[in-house]
Amino acid sequence: MHFDHMNVRGSHSQSRARVSYSKLTAPSNTMKNTSTIGPALPLAVASGILGFAASASAAQITVAGIDVPAPQTTEWKTSTTPKTFDIDGDNIYGSLASINFTIAFPGAQALGSSTLGVGFVGSGPQFNQPEYADIDKVTGGPVDENAGLALNTFTFELTGTAEDYTGKTVRVGFMQDILGAGEQPADLGKTLELTQVAGIGGGASGIVPVRGLAAGDGVPEFYFFDITGVVPGDRFTINSPNPVGAVSGYISAGSFDLIPEPSTALALVTGIGMLSMLRRRG
To answer: Are 178 and 76 in contact (CB under 8 A)?
Structure first.
């Protein structure tokens, strides 16, 4: 993917991912971001682009897992570390695509692409600091890098063809609790919600409390959501609003995996079993 420079502004451009350098207000009002993946997207904009690209049916969003602990987060790209919520079989989170804000977005595709993947629509300002939690490199473990974050919101598009998503579930996960020791006591009262913001319908996961609204300890955890009934071009926003009396809401590293729906997988296994029986009888 090509990167060039731009100023971070409140817009939802369809251009390719870019890098920027600026000084912005962050959770503690003292942090500075280094580089940014894609255009900035304020929370109000991310929540207001309903109907941007129509699709044939509304996707369904459900919560798949909450407070999924380390080492599944810190070693998310290490295949020898068991992964409770990776059910595409490779024991790695983010086989379709994954993002570490300010660092990289492997698996990213241009918006509207017919290639299976994930398109970057926009996010809040992005930051990465040396005191943030160490996680596997987004491009592959076990080498570590600091987790990055986007303030409040991240919007993405699922790209590809209708055939890519037929009978499939997209599982997306986002990390929380990556701040340094000085900010962990105020990393509380947080929530997440995944909402469809483009396509027919506007389904949502419902509000998910992060750590039961408790303060963080700097050891990342994952929150997973399943999306079914996807039509290429559907867009979704993960939101983390600003709690009162706490550091700003944020979205940290994210994973995207494509898996068969349970009924499809069962039918496939049953079909293979029946075929095997018929062959033996023949």
So the answer is: no
Q: What is the DSSP string of 67-136?
A: EEPTTTTTTTT-TTS--TT--SSSS-S-SSEEEBTTTB-TTB--TT-SSSEEEEEEES-EE--TTSPEEE
pTM: 0.78
In this predicted structure, the answer to whether residue 126 has a pLDDT above a threshold of 50 is yes
What phi and psi, each to the nearest 5 degrees, are found at residue 162? Answer: -60, -35
> Which of residues 156 and 275 earns the better pLDDT score?
156
**If we measure between CA atoms, which residue out of 197, 229, 236 comes closest to residue 56?**
229
* Residue of 59, 16, 70 lying closest to 39 (CA atoms): 16
